[in-house]
Amino acid sequence: MTAYAIGNLHPKPVLDEEVFTYMERIQDTLDPFGGRFLVHGAPEREVREGEWPGALVIIGFPTYEDARDWYDSEPYRALIPLRTRHMAGDVLLIDGVPEGYAASATAARLRAAPPA
């Protein structure tokens, strides 16, 4: 089941050379784990509800274990400070839903569950 690394990053107005180095090197850390960028701070976006400060980054992985192994890998851990010194943000790893997932089936399961 596909998993994702999702970042909501808040870059400083002027990016430092370290951020460019991070961006140049990250793909090499993703390749061994099957990671690929799905969204990378897309400049064109439309916030329809609430607020969305920052730049969205979504990286897809074949499995949750691949996402976790990438984030915990020595090559990626060495790059993290190049980003975090120059932009705050939140990063999470999350599993996707299986093929054929239906929100209505989840609603039915939750409706049938006894109250907590």
Tell me what the structure shows.
Residues 2-97 form the DUF1330 domain. It comes from Streptomyces showdoensis. This is DUF1330 domain-containing protein. The chain contains 4 helices and 4 strands, in the order βαββααβα. The protein is of the alpha+beta class and 116 residues long. The protein has a single domain (3-112), classed as Alpha-Beta Plaits (2-Layer Sandwich), CATH 3.30.70. A 4-stranded antiparallel β-sheet has the order 2-3-1-4. Helix 1 runs antiparallel to helix 3 (74-84). The radius of gyration is 17 Å and the shape is globular. The model has no long low-confidence stretch (mean pLDDT 93).
- The structural domain count equals 1
Largest sheet: 4 strands, antiparallel
Name of the CATH class:
Alpha Beta
**pLDDT < 50 runs, ≥5 residues:** none
Give the overall form: globular
Task: Write the element-wise H/E pattern from the N-terminal end onward.
Answer: EHEEHHEH
Entry summary:
With 116 residues, the protein is of the alpha+beta class. The mean pLDDT is 93. The protein has helices at residues 17-30, 64-72, 74-84, 103-112, and strands at residues 3-11, 36-40, 55-61, 87-95.
Features:
single chain; Dimeric_a/b-barrel; 4 helices; DUF1330 domain-containing protein; DUF1330; 116 residues; Alpha-Beta Plaits; four-stranded antiparallel β-sheet; alpha+beta
Task: Give the topology.
Layout: E1 3-11, H1 17-30, E2 36-40, E3 55-61, H2 64-72, H3 74-84, E4 87-95, H4 103-112
Antiparallel strand pairs: 1-3, 1-4, 2-3
Helix pairs in contact: 1-3
